[in-house]
TrEMBL record:
SUPFAM superfamilies: Ribokinase-like. Belongs to the carbohydrate kinase PfkB family. This is Carbohydrate kinase. It is an enzyme of class 2 (transferase). Residues 6-297 form the Carbohydrate kinase PfkB domain. It holds the Pfam family PfkB.
């Protein structure tokens, strides 16, 4: 096993974002790509295992990742087209997504293409649509299980997209299987409300810990985030900012969280103080992203009092 890194498995998509004039602009996106770029901008060694189309939109995704310092040495050059997401913004900046996923590159994983995820130690992060859509989702899950067995720290963000993840019962079964492989699980309160409509957020976080996760976190939008740990419950308020839109905010939170947990090391047995610090950094990172159009996470030097260690 080679050097330590943060490896991200999952999709890289083109977001078609509707502007005030009704015109659409194309931007690189997709939760895993956003997390990888966020980590690289925070000075972390970020490797993205994605299936990138060889067509022009796929090349644009590749160029964007490389320009931001993301390691694509094991990304797959795929013959299938890139996935598209059409993004509509509400008056308060919240985003709604419609995906075009049939036959696109991101879901066609083969086991050999995912094998490089296991050749580094450190953190392995996955989730979003790549963990749900066939035929590749089974292989993504197998890779997370193998990483756990090899002693890697496994991170999961289900990033639920209703309408693409099956029925609620099917999605919940998939999530709970993946949670059993993970040490860190982060989800939005909206994800949790859709998966468990009759449960409180805190109860779901504890349920996931009972399935094997060490640290479970729910992001709460402008209310910040809450975490369940072995020592109890941690809460972190969000800074008050002027929101342009929320595109990529949850992914920026994940990047900030994983960046700090990676720096602290010794995972998954992190000290409570370190977890609290990671949550604080994560909400700061997400808040800055909300002040910018699109998924545009900050560099470490743009965060108050933060420099590359």
């Amino acid at each position: 096993m080679s050097a330590s890194a943060i490896t991200i498995i999952g999709e890289a998509v083109i977001d078609l974002v509707e502007g005030p004039d009704g015109q659409f602009a194309a931007h690189p996106g997709g939760s895993p790509l956003n997390v990888a770029v966020g980590l690289a901008r925070l000075g972390m060694p970020a490797r993205l295992l994605a299936r990138l189309s060889a067509a022009p939109l796929g090349r644009r995704l590749r160029e964007y990742a490389e320009a931001n310092g993301v390691d694509l040495s094991h990304a797959v050059t795929a013959t299938e087209p890139a996935t598209l997401s059409v993004v509509s913004l509400a008056a308060d900046g919240t985003a709604a997504y419609d995906f075009y996923v049939d036959g696109t590159a991101d879901w066609q994983w083969q086991p050999a293409e995912l094998a490089p995820a296991l050749d580094h130690h450190g953190i392995l992060h996955a989730g979003s649509l790549a963990a749900f859509l066939t035929p590749g989702a089974e292989h993504v899950g197998d890779t997370l299980r193998a990483a756990q067995e090899r002693g890697m720290v496994v991170s999961l963000d289900p990033n639920i997209r209703p309408g693409l993840v099956g029925t609620r019962a099917q999605a919940r079964a998939t999530v709970e299987q993946l949670v059993s492989y993970a040490h860190v699980v982060k989800a939005s309160d909206e994800d949790i409300a859709w998966l468990y409509p009759d449960e409180r957020v805190g109860d779901v976080l504890q349920h996931w810990r009972g399935l094997g996760a060490v640290l479970t976190i729910a992001t709460l939008g402008p209310e910040g985030a809450v975490a369940a740990t072995g020592a109890g419950v941690l809460r972190e308020a969000a800074p008050v900012v002027e929101v342009v839109d929320t595109i990529g905010a949850g992914d920026a939170f994940t990047a900030g969280l994983l960046a700090e947990l990676y720096r602290f090391g010794s995972g998954p047995a992190w000290h409570e103080h370190d977890i609290a610090g990671a949550m604080r950094f994560a909400v700061e990172t997400a808040a800055i992203t909300c002040t910018r159009a699109g998924a545009d996470p900050p560099h470490r030097g743009q965060l108050p009092g933060r420099t590359i260690p």
